[in-house]
Amino acid sequence: MVDQFRQFLTRFVDLTDPEWQALEKHLTSKTMPKKGFLIQQGQTATEINFLLSGSCRLFYERDGNEKTTYFFFENNLVGDYLGCLTNQPSTLSIQALEDCKLICFRYEVLTALYQQFPAYQLFGRKLAEYLFMGLDIRLAELLTLSPEERYLKFIGTPAKRKIMERIPQQYIASYLGVTPVSLSRIRRRIHPS
Amino acid sequence: MVDQFRQFLTRFVDLTDPEWQALEKHLTSKTMPKKGFLIQQGQTATEINFLLSGSCRLFYERDGNEKTTYFFFENNLVGDYLGCLTNQPSTLSIQALEDCKLICFRYEVLTALYQQFPAYQLFGRKLAEYLFMGLDIRLAELLTLSPEERYLKFIGTPAKRKIMERIPQQYIASYLGVTPVSLSRIRRRIHPS
DNA sequence: TCAACTTCTTAACAAAAGATAATAAATCAG
DNA sequence: CTGATTTATTATCTTTTGTTAAGAAGTTGA
């Protein structure tokens, strides 16, 4: 269970046993049923979770309308990283799309480890760089590709295509920056049947 | 001159004199005339610059069409940070919008300092977190606001409004995710005169 | 199994945006 | 100063998207 999380960390940094144990002792297990909320608009984020299994969506609510902008899957972190950094009340919500098993720790624990261990300071940098890269590429795609091109690129990426099989299409629409109705029309244009 | 850069660094981290000198000895001065290129599509980014004065735009070219997605101003870093992280040929270009004075250093110098000094490792994390925050907020705005709302938010932010006085409107249009013609129409709708 | 709910598609209409081109305004360089 | 270039606006037309609503298809849970 926690090994799965330790394995994830090695994607960014090698940890000695004592370093790992310094984090491990602060970990707790959690489950969240489908449609449950990890955080809701207005709350202040204090925790980061590791997704052992399941999936979540991140969305913003504007006048009764939900805009899903991000998805989280197993073997990745899930949480309001921006909220943890700024310590401001969150403008977003994170909801389970499937039943989730989680490993939970307070963000403060992580920042404390940043001070105590160079390895975690390195991890913190690698993590932020990793998240930056994802956003930078995504932003460029949003600004340079048309909705139709974005959809084609999305289904052309094997990892993303698998997402479509697990996530309702309406959420993918808003991830791509269009309405569900519009995505349905784009699909009809592309897959004439 | 270099003091201006050192001052910038203190926004992220406090450096001792020896720490600062370890970086300072690798710094070089550069100027770039208006319309000059800091990096062009296809090149591999190896340098980061600090903008002493002037401004630049970052753009992508797609079938003869340029999409400007980011601006750089004095007292900030300018460069292809993603390219430095991935070490892959760049898909973007950075061009001076005004005559620029720069302080230049190789990205390798920075990563070497990450290893040598905890203070720079901390700086690297803070920098990545800072860049992440900017992108995260921007992505959310792109996905949740209409073009008109994005323009209103843009001119409603004093710091951004000042940008409008220095940057041709066509570039701001594409920064906001619309064509120059469309931004002109949005402005007419909003400022009826 | 079956009713309730969710999701996707389709239609019809209005609104907005893209493309192209022409003109006006502003800026720049010799 | 002035011709050349760059930039912004406006018009026209086409395409796309948003909105709303209805119906079909699929899923879920008691």
Automatic annotation (TrEMBL), chains A, B:
Q: Where is the Cyclic nucleotide-binding domain?
A: 11-102
**Xref: SUPFAM superfamilies:** cAMP-binding domain-like (SSF51206)
Q: Name one Pfam family in it.
A: cNMP_binding
Origin, by domain of life? Bacteria
The entry's protein name is: Crp/Fnr family transcriptional regulator
